[in-house]
Amino acid sequence: MTSPYTAPPAASGPAPKWARKRYVLPALALALFIGAGIGSGGEDTKGDAKPVTAKPQPTVTVTATATATIAAEAEPEPAETVTATETVKVTRTVTAEAAAQDDSDVDADVYYANCSEARAAGAAPVRRGEPGYASHLDRDNDGVGCDS
Question: Is 0.70 topped by the overall pTM?
């Protein structure tokens, strides 16, 4: 005969979620009460930190003075002079067509669609302010069109 007070045999598999809660919740409650008991330990709280109000504080100023004396007799030596000379030979061939009109009228009508046309006419590089200069010829906007 079996005793009604003995536990039934353990079931295989994990325990249901409600069975875990009956252990976890009392443990959390116990930890809460222990923490509250430690916090209210009955010690004197006069030494605790108090909020600090804005009070005028003394201002500290540090001044440092450096004095350098240079002897009047000692003169600094001059730095070495380095001269770099580069000789550049520039050859430019310009082919001019005979113009029947005045040059001032021709200059106003000069237009180059691209740098190839300006080079073919012998006008490259074209500088800002010269006849034939246009912003589409100046890629880097330095004032010189068709410079490379």
Answer: no
Reduced to 3 states (helix: H, G, I; strand: E, B; else coil), residue 107 is: helix
| Helix residue spans in 40-136 (DSSP H) | 103-108, 115-120
Q: Give the whole-angstrom CA distance, residue 122 versus residue 90.
A: 14
Give the SS3 label for residue 127: strand
Mean pLDDT per 10-residue interval, the chain, length 148 residues: 66 67 83 86 63 73 75 69 81 66 56 89 87 88 85
| DSSP output for 16-37 | PHHHHHHHHHHHHHHHHHHHHH
| Nearest of 91, 129, 87 to residue 107 by alpha carbon | 129
